Amino acid sequence: MFMILVSSCLLGLYAKYDGTITNTASLLLKYSHWGQYIPICPEQQGGLSTPRQPAEIIGGTGAEVLKGDKLVRNALGEDVTAQFIKGAQQALEFTKLVFVNAAILKEQSPSCGKHLIHNGEFVGNLIPGQGVTVALLTNHQIPVYSEQELSEELLLNLLTQSREMGQKQA
After folding, report:
1. How far apart are CA 106 and CA 23, in angstroms?
2. 62, 95, 144, 157: which sits with the fewest CB atoms below 10 Å from its CB?
3. Does the model's pTM come out above 0.85?
4. Cβ count within 10 A of residue 166
């Protein structure tokens, strides 16, 4: 069976930087019993704790971080770039361990944002761009969706596609 990577925080797991579960997406929970989600938190997988200081890509995007051109810093000014890259690589490893046909990740996150990320000034301003994990998954042709663009129709399509693809592999 093919699986879908899902940001842990969207599933109500203890992963959001501030330790709350306020990112829970009820639509994802509605279909969690299908057993096709792999919860991931690239920031935790990269070695950061929960709770942790908020982090932002400084003056750039995830693709630029992967190229070595930009840094990820937390609100205390500490460089956490290595942890973000390691976490993105760990997410990519999941796609090699099991059949993954898509990822549904948390918009606006420096790891998981698909369309928008914070601008690196820690004042709440958003810019167009992808987080580090999204950039890496996209580079490896893994379709990524944000929870904000997710509809029940799209989710059911992904879940059904996952099951059908898995049956063909069996």
Report:
1. 8
2. 157
3. yes
4. 16
pLDDT in tens, 26-74: 999 999 999 999 999 999 999 999 999 999 999 999 999 999 999 999 9
What is the Cα–Cα distance from 92 to 105, expressed in whole angstroms?
13
Residue 36 φ then ψ, to 5°? -115, 10
Q: How many CB atoms lie within 10 A of CB 45?
A: 21
Nearest to 7 by CA among 18, 26, 23: 23
Query: How many structural domains is the chain composed of?
Result: 1
What is the model's pLDDT at position 166?
Answer: 56
Q: Which domain holds residue 52?
A: 3-169
**Averaged pLDDT score across all residues of the chain:** 95
Strand duo 100-105 + 3-7: pairing: parallel
Helix (H) or strand (E) holding 89: helix 81-97
The pair of structure tokens assigned to 77 is 């000014």
- Whether the CB-CB separation of 108 and 117 falls below 8 Å is answered with yes
| DSSP H or E stretch at residue 152 | helix 152-169
